[in-house]
Amino acid sequence: MGTNENKRRGHPVAGKSAQPATDRDDGEGPSSTGTSASERAKFERLAEGWWDLRGPMRPLHMMNPVRIGFFRDEMVKRLGGGVDSAAALSGLAVLDVGCGGGLLAEPLARLGARMTGVDLEAALIDVANRHAAASGLEIDYRVATTDQLIEEDLRFDAVIASEVIEHVADPQAFVSSLAHLVRPGGLVLLSTPARTVRSFGQVIVAAEYILKWLPRGTHDWRRFLTPAETTGLLRRAGLIPLDIAGINYDLGKSCFYRTPDVRVNYMVSSIRPLA
C-alpha cells in the first residue's frame, strides 16, 4: 500500500506466471516507472485517514513493527549501527518510495535515518508533512517519481518500497529504478503480498470483505508477485538478494509477526554490488 511509485507499467516479469494480469499496462500512468491514475486514486481517497489507527490504514499500522524491525535489522547488519541503539540508523540516507502519509518514514527517522519520502499524490505528501511537523521530525517529503530522482543523480544508502510493487504496472522497470537510486554497497528493501491461494484468502477475502480493514478493491491479487518472481526482478536489475522473511497474522493475539512462512506477505533485502 503506500502510493508513490506505487504503480508501474508492464514488462513481463518472469514468464507467464509473473504477469498474471493482462491489464498491467492500463495507459494511465505518467511514465514507465509511474503510477496509473486508477491506482493513485485509491490511495488519494484514503489520505485523511492515514494516521487513524482504526481507519483504513489499520493493517499497515499493525504491520509496521514487523516491517520496521526487518528493515532496521537488515540496515544495521549490512550497513553498520546497533540494533539496540535508539539511533541505530544514524548517518544513513534512506529513501521511502511510495511513502504515503509517512508510516514508515517517521519511525525510521526516529532511529536516526536521514529520510526522504516520495509519493505521486500531493494529498498524501501534505498529510505526511503535517504529521511530521506535529511530531517534531525533519523529513524531506516530495511529490516525485523515481525517474525524477534519478535525473537529479541522487543516491541513497538504502531504498525501501513497502507494499508498493503490487500496485505498479511494470515491476521490472520499477525495481530497476530503485537499483539506480541506491549507492554501490547499499540496500534495496521490499515488502509485498505473495500471489498464493493463502494470500487471496487473507489479503483479499478476509481483509477487504470479511474484516473490512481495507476498502474493497484496494488490491488486485493478479498483480501480486511470488518471492521467486520478486528475487528474479532484483537480479535482473543488477541486485543480489540477501534475506527474506514472511509476515503473518496471529488471530488470537490480534497482531502480525515475522515468520519463515512467505506464503501471505513477505519482506526481502538485496544489495547493489560494489563493482
Automatic annotation (TrEMBL):
Enzyme class at the top of the EC tree: transferase
Pathway given in the UniProt record: Cofactor biosynthesis; ubiquinone biosynthesis
Cited InterPro entries: SAM-dependent_MTases_sf, UbiG_MeTrfase
E.C. number(s) listed in UniProt: 2.1.1.222, 2.1.1.64
Source taxon at top rank: Bacteria
Region of interest called Disordered, as start-end residue ranges on this chain: 1-40
Keyword Methyltransferase on entry: yes
UniProt-listed GO biological process terms: methylation
Leader sequence residues: none
Pfam family, one: Methyltransf_23
Keyword Protein biosynthesis: no
Chain residues that bind S-adenosyl-L-methionine: 67, 98, 119, 162
Catalysis performed (reactions): a 3-demethylubiquinol + S-adenosyl-L-methionine = a ubiquinol + S-adenosyl-L-homocysteine + H(+); a 3-(all-trans-polyprenyl)benzene-1,2-diol + S-adenosyl-L-methionine = a 2-methoxy-6-(all-trans-polyprenyl)phenol + S-adenosyl-L-homocysteine + H(+)
UniProt keyword annotations, A-Z: Methyltransferase, S-adenosyl-L-methionine, Transferase, Ubiquinone, Ubiquinone biosynthesis
Annotated GO MF terms: 2-polyprenyl-6-hydroxyphenol methylase activity; 3-demethylubiquinol 3-O-methyltransferase activity; polyprenyldihydroxybenzoate methyltransferase activity
Family: Belongs to the methyltransferase superfamily. UbiG/COQ3 family.
Family annotation (HAMAP family): UbiG
NCBIfam families: UbiG (TIGR01983)
PANTHER family, alphabetized: METHYLTRANSFERASE, UBIQUINONE BIOSYNTHESIS O-METHYLTRANSFERASE, MITOCHONDRIAL
Physiological role: O-methyltransferase that catalyzes the 2 O-methylation steps in the ubiquinone biosynthetic pathway.
Name this polypeptide is given: Ubiquinone biosynthesis O-methyltransferase
Species name: Arboricoccus pini
Lineage: Bacteria, Pseudomonadati, Pseudomonadota, Alphaproteobacteria, Geminicoccales
